[in-house]
Amino acid sequence: MKNLLSRHPVLFSLAAILIYDPCLTSILAAFLGQRHTQLSGLLPAQMVLSVYVGFLLTYLAWWRAAGFTRPVSVRALLAYAPWLILPLLMLADSPGQPVAITRVAGFAVFCLLVGFAEEGLLRGVVLRALMPGGVMRAVLISSALFGAAHLTNMFQGRDVFSTVVQAIYATFIGIGFAGPRIFTGTIWPAVVLHGLIDFSDFASRGFTPLSEAKPIQSGQAIVIIAITGLYALFGWWLIRRRVKAVSPAQCVAEGS
Fold first, then answer.
1. Which residues have CB under 8 Å from 98's CB, separation 6+?
2. How far apart, in whole angstroms, are the C-alpha atoms of residue 192 and residue 207?
3. Considering only CA atoms, which of 175, 183, 178, 179 is closest in space to residue 73?
4. Which domain, by its residues, includes 63?
5. How buried is 3 (Cβ within 10 angstroms: 0-12 exposed, 13-18 middle, 19+ buried)?
6. Is 63 helix (H, G, I), strand (E, B) or coil?
7. Contact 126, 13 (CB under 8 A)
8. Angle formed by the axes of helices 39-59 and 25-32, to 10°?
9. C-alpha distances in angstroms, 251 versus 58, 169, 181, 190, 211?
10. What is the DSSP string of 172-188?
11. Average model confidence (pLDDT) for the chain?
12. How far is CA 112 from the centre of its chain?
């Protein structure tokens, strides 16, 4: 696998994502059966996916290079601050229905695992693997792959329009998260914020699985894409600032 990484980093990145989703998710879905779409199945499945990402980081000795380290400065962490607004906007739509505390806690753990696995894979392993080809190129490719990976949600009961919209705004989120990840040198806030955003999404739907989510309407799609597009622009601006401040070789050396 290291040979593929050194010779064909894009193919390596694609393979790493395909193993994660749909290969591993399909195997886990078959093993867990109908429980795969319920919390009782989602949690163990996501634990396995998180172990896979942890294995990749350990195998490549990339924990630090992938951003699991301290930020370049405490002040730099403010670059993540705008992401706190998104979960608040999502929670504003919460139905406010009573939910068992154990269910809320279960979804909180699940979302944190998703945050670790997806950020560790996309803004960690994949972004680092693509860095030698150029920082901006690495961000665009890793974000596009992140968006495309969400197309598999159609196989979990999501309608086509909602899935395509999700793929678009996931791409924008990828660029948006890559910005502070590169600017600060640390991925930890992205892991937590990614989990918080997913948790807020579940809360806005009364903590129901994705398979039971209502289709996204055209008006909602415009708003979601516009908001995440702004995050993408902000992330791109941060990346340009960082690239101008240091040499591309130093960006790669820092794992950012």
1. none
2. 19
3. 183
4. 2-254
5. exposed
6. coil
7. yes
8. 150
9. 21, 26, 11, 18, 40
10. HHHHHHHHHHHHHS--H
11. 90
12. 11
